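Q: Hi! First time doing this. I have a protein sequence and I read that you can turn it into a structure. Is that right? Here it is:
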Amino acid sequence: MKWEYELDNCITTTQHLKQYTNLPQDVESQLNKIIHRHPMKITPYYISLIDWDNPNDPIKKMSVPSTNELNLAGSYDTSGELNNTVLPGVQHKYQQTALILATNRCATYCRHCFRKRLIGTSDKEILKRFEDAVNYINKHKEINNVLITGGDPFVLSNNVIYSMLDLLTKITHLSFIRFGTRTLVTLPSRFDDEEFLEILNTFNKNKKRTYVVTQFNYPREITSQAKKAINSLIKNGILINNQTVLLKGVNDYPKTLAKLLNKLVRIGVNPYYVFQCRPVKRVKNQFQIPLYKGIEITETAKQDCNGLSKRFKYIMSHKSGKIEILGVFENKILFKYHQAKEPKNLGKIFTRPFNKNAKWFDDLKRPRSINFNKENHT
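A: Yes, that's right. Below is the predicted 3D structure, encoded as structure tokens:
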């Protein structure tokens, strides 16, 4: 099945959904309200992975709308993206990185998406003219890498992807380019397109190093089709990093998380981050787990991981930066700024009092810096 055909035949309505599962009338009515606000879109491939005999199937939970999405607790911008937008479609939060929102479309609309405010709906934050982004990056020599995301840039045409790479690779102070995509998980047929692979290969080999950042969250997502797609990228010299999101009812069990990370390493994908799920509206209530629980899960999972699969960092993408969650010590949670909006905070280690109910950084109080002197370092 060609990837374009799959995109044109996604499951997008409750009528489509009823071909796979029974929907009581009252539930269907509620789901229609949710879909009107946050559209449903599931590729034929990805919906085929759902175990419909299991009402709590993790893949179903990540892709099929739930009445839990009626809960509006949380925020639509948990990481301060709007404050870091320098022009529509371009964010510059960290000195060395420019982030480009290339599209508001994906192959499948994940129910845990942290950009629910725009995915499948608004295009106000999407880049209209790619030349505008190039001009901005050209003027900011401190930027040495670009992350092209959205939405999912790999649902765009080959011509558009070629044009983006052609413009960006001419910027001399860029060292590498990243694409954020979940098509490896939800639309692996995209990587059967030889022209597409040749475009990536040509620019990666002759112009700028290209990375793919993807998101496998559950072991059953690693199928033979996904492996084939990954092999296609690797054969063309593309390096792949994975950013798992820790999700309640999906991978919040150490054995499950360890199995996922070990399988990723086995097929050539580098576990990069395990993200604390963000407190997004219509997401927070359904998917977030407490921080202390996340620490227990990730640290216990590492016991079953090998040297490569345990390299990941447990991270919160907070408005102030990427905060690494180091662990619990003397009734305090230890944190470190892995990335920071304010450069002076980069690498800073600090604590906050332990709170068993806290699920996000802002749920904790009274940070205290840890000052290391020379004796501490020795």
